[in-house]
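Put briefly, the fold is written as integer tokens. The lines below illustrate.
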Amino acid sequence: MPKFYRGSLLKRVAAASLIMVALLSLCAYHQLEYEKHSKYPLPEKLLVNPGRYTGETIWIEGVVREVYHTGFQLLVSSGVKSDVFKIETNLPASIGDRAELLGLLGPNNSVVAQKIIVYEKWQSIFIFIHSFFVIPIILLILLSSWRFNFRSMQFTRRK
């Protein structure tokens, strides 16, 4: 193998390592500092002490547990802690749907929704089914035009 390839491989490995270190540093920074830049209280803190945030605007997401004519109950889970919030809205929802909402927290975990998005149960399942069929097609397209060369550790175009 000529020196050109050895040096080129070494440069690629060094560049890839540098990029990975930079990306991992950014990920660590985001994980450590995201709480300071959050506009609304984090769900983890909200679940620990919901009374502290009464009268404030909150953002929560969870699964619809019960449906009433004036709204529904939303089961919000974060790690090991979970709680039920009573959402006051006219938007129809079914048990098992996922919901994200922005609203004003009232007493006894009641929330008056200002903005709300409800994902029906079939939409979540459809994403997985769609991905299951698309991944093999993408791999087939990739591998029909390209092949992986293990010596140089790169993809090369097929002839």
Remarks:
- The chain has a mean pLDDT of 87.
- Residues 99 and 107 are 21 Å apart (CA to CA).
- The longest helix spans residues 3-33.
- The first strand starts at residue 57 and ends at 67.
